[in-house]
Write a structure and sequence with these properties.
The chain is of the alpha/beta class and about 325 residues long. Helix content is about 55%, strand content about 5%. The chain has two domains: about 130 residues, 3-Layer(aba) Sandwich (Rossmann fold); about 180 residues, Orthogonal Bundle (Hypothetical protein af1432). It is elongated. The chain binds fe (ii) ion. Fe (ii) ion binds next to loops.
Length: about 325
């Protein structure tokens, strides 16, 4: 009901009495009503108000309802606004002309009150629903773009290769899909993979950019980055289900990882999958201090860590999936 109450209806008719009649019929239904007495005024009002529905008279001096319709449909911002033509013309030709001009529906004069109210109610409700869905879609897209921005910001700060976050994200999601993880779950895994090292934002640049071996004190600091990620992301409600990878991607199957020394299935599956993919990617690209390893060398290295650093079943799944990941790998590393 609250959605209907916020719907705005623009009534366009050159005769003030007709506007008043329509207003009286729609009174008390929870709409906000606006009025225009000619076509030009209608176009201005529509652009200003972005109404949920336009009730448009056809026979108006200057610009007819058909012309108003065509102008509205040509305006990208108003092209989708529902338009009901109000007309005493009920012949086939006029109806066709109205449809060609872009009208959605017709209401003949004289009005049937019940029919008018029902049609207006239906069309405003549908339009509200569509608008809400579009808003929700835009919001989700804005969330995802923000996360990508954070990942890019980290790549600028970190000594990591450009594109690492994007590649490990695509591979983790693809492997997860092959391992039959649900699409709902994969949404969170994608976010977590993208933000896996976001905790490095809290690590001083001189440590991140150091090319020689880290000393013990520096190692202690860098090993804080999963905890920093937890602190950074956990107050953000929609990222709660995405925390597994940023918080647990350095845990080892044998319990020798950090920050909490989790072991076996204590480590969330998403983080166990990601850990293998992360090492695969790191060794697959050239670094300032070494060239990329061959596929065979990476495979035997990953196999050698099954049961210590990596979940052995995930290693098996990853190696089995490699031929199927071929296309993704080709695109990512071309
Ligand atoms: Fe990390």
């Amino acid at each position: 009901m609250s959605q209907i109450q916020t719907s705005t209806i623009l009534i366009v008719d050159d005769k003030p009495l007709n506007c008043q009649t329509l207003a009286a019929l729609l009174h008390g239904q929870g709409y906000q009503l606006a009025f225009a007495l000619n076509g030009f005024e209608a176009l201005t009002q529509a652009a200003m108000l972005m109404p949920d529905l336009i009730l448009l008279d056809v026979m108006m001096p200057g610009m007819s309802g058909f012309e108003v319709c065509q102008h509205l449909r040509a305006n990208p911002l108003l092209a989708e606004v529902p338009i009901i033509l109000i007309t005493s013309l009920d012949d086939q030709k006029s109806r066709l002309e109205g449809l060609e001009a872009g009208a959605d529906d017709f209401i003949p004069k004289p009005f049937n009150i019940i029919e008018l109210q029902a049609r207006v109610r239906t069309i405003t409700r549908l339009n509200r629903y569509r608008s809400l869905r579009e808003e929700r879609q835009k919001l989700i897209q804005a969330y995802e773009e923000t996360l990508t921005g954070w990942a890019r910001a980290l790549e600028l700060k970190d000594n990591e290769t450009m594109g690492h976050s994007q590649r490990v994200t695509e591979l983790t999601v693809e492997l997860g899909r092959i391992m039959k993880i649900s699409e709902d779950e994969l949404v969170h895994i994608r976010r977590g993979a993208l933000l896996h090292d976001i905790g490095k934002m809290g690590v001083p640049d001189y440590i991140l950019r150091k090319t020689s071996a880290l000393n013990d004190a520096e190692r202690v600091i860098i090993e804080q980055h999963p905890t920093y990620a937890y602190q950074m992301l956990s107050p953000i409600e929609y990222l709660h289900p995405a925390l597994d990878i940023p918080y647990c991607h350095h845990e080892h199957w044998d319990g020798q990882g950090y920050p909490r020394g989790l072991k076996h299935e204590q480590i969330p599956l998403a983080a166990r999958i990601f850990a293998v993919v992360d090492v695969w990617d790191a060794l697959s690209v050239d670094r300032p201090y070494r060239t990329a390893w061959s596929t065979e060398k990476i495979i035997s290295y990953i196999q050698s860590l099954a049961g210590t650093q990596f979940d052995p079943q995930v290693v098996v799944a990853f190696l089995e999936a490699l031929p199927r990941l071929d296309k993704t790998l080709g695109l990512l590393y071309e």
